[in-house]
Protein: DDE-1 domain-containing protein
Organism: Effrenium voratum
Amino acid sequence: IEKELTDIRRQLRNAGKRLRAAALVQQPDVRVTAKVQVAAPSLPWSPASVRDLLVFIFSGHDAQVAADFAQGWGRRGCGAAAHAQQAREHLVAEVEWAYIRAPLAFIVQLETNPLEACPMNDVLCASRYVVQHELFQWVERQNVEQGVAPSRRQLVEHALSSVPHTVPEEVRRLVSAVLTGSPRSQRRWLAKFRQRWGARLNKLKLQPCVSIDAMQRWRRFQALGWQAMAYFQWVNEALTAAPTGRSPLVINMDETAVVRHVSGLVGTVVRHPRATRCPKDEATLSDVRSYISYFASITHDRAVQPMLPQVLVGNEHQFPVKLLEGLRPLPHGVHVWRCKSAWNNHATMRRYISLLAKSLGDLVQQRYVILLAECALSHIDVSIFKHALRCGVRLVYVPASMTGVLLPCDTHLFSRFKAAFADMWRRQKAECVAGVVTTNDWVRVIWRAVEEVVMRGDWQQAFESAGVLRRQQRLAGNLREKLGWAELPEVPAGPPAVDLAREIFPQRMRLDVLSYVLWKPKCQRSRESAECSGFRSLSVSAEALLHEEMEALKRRRGELKRQCRQAARDSKVLAKKRQRLLQAAKNLSAEDLQLLLRAPKVAKAKEVVGLLAVMALQAGWGRCLVLCS
């Protein structure tokens, strides 16, 4: 019976709450009550409500707060809505005039004892609104000016300090009851506050604080785009330098890492309560961390694209000899290299240039081949420059900090290739036994992705949007935005200056920039400048004689360096011998040392005798010193 009685009481309380909520919804803006009408039977300010005046008084006579309350800002279902400025000014004026035209006795009663002038609900509603409005303004200032997202404790402390002093003590206790309750009740109150005022739990976005001078320098650099301008000048100069009858053939080569086991793919995962096994993707740690390098090659000429080499480079552990034998015959254009390391280096780069020249065949003589590459340390070396010069391939480097927007492989190829490879790998894993993809199947999946995306693709638009072709007339919009170019500037004709071209290469790298930009070795440039100036006074025979003398001096210098290194090694060996003798002599007595000095072989060795004399002197053996002398 007691349980049923408790249940009935609970149902009655809930019904009463619903009735009161329905009454508030039907009358959201309570006008002047009968009690007030008795005190002031004729009020000229009937458009304004008592709650608006209470908000105006509790906020310290701030008409902006009362206007926000009249507009419904912060009420349930209204949020922090924005209103027209003209309507807001009119509402502010209406609130102020309502306060001015109200009877003086009624205003004094609201200021001194509001509970006698209006119901308890009106005073409580106005007090709560003033607290929440002040809390919202404080949070906004903290977010914008201080860069702080206040915590629960900070919000509760400021809300308690924002309760108006003119509020009666009874109302103050009711307003502060929720804020001084348990942390759970505080969180529930703050959740409703955030919902009503358009706030949320989130993190502030970190923005680096940059000085005005640094920002101006960065904007100046961004507006000018020195690196991009130098690169575009270099590309235009390389295209213009093509001989008559040999049209330019621009090829972009870049490497990317291909993982052994692709993880993190999004798909359908079963979450059924009757499932007996947990869904999972099993892989060894070596497969997850194992990568190979893919050297991709693309060109703007679709007819030449199938001829370009596509190289997969792996180390000896990833590509064993038996695997390479099982992969034969290889598809046309695909090459698999087994090296000590899967990363690119100078030797691998020279090997790729040789393979590129061999794959193009007669096109090296028929077309002017230009190879675009990333400005990485593994791509730049004197040996690579000389080897490319011998193979008939001109090198042009893209600035390292702008490869994501200037290199066609990065802008158009690799994202499509990685997506196709991941999809094919997932299909292959679904068909394999126990979901284990062997290394042979993995390499074949890469082949299929290369054939589908790279070899059959048309990359004309990629080269045009990156500014390689058509003199940057079809430059991509995102690239212009990054460079700060509202309109495409005019790229100067001719090669870039030395100081400007040096911005393309990594800093502190010692290299002859003009040799790369003009594609002429330094000796050739010197000879051409001497011929053009007309001051070449040496004959061919004299020049050859000087060349022979220089070579002889170089050989002599090499011999002297070898002799110096040998002498240094001999001195180190002798020092080690002396040290060993000193260590051994510490355990010898004077009689043993005399017998050692009388030995015929030791007596003939002057260095040993002198060393033993020094040892005897250090040990204080006078007789041995006499014998040594």
About this structure: Residues 27-47, 621-629 have pLDDT under 50 and may be disordered. Residues 382 and 625 are 62 Å apart (CA to CA). The first strand starts at residue 248 and ends at 259.
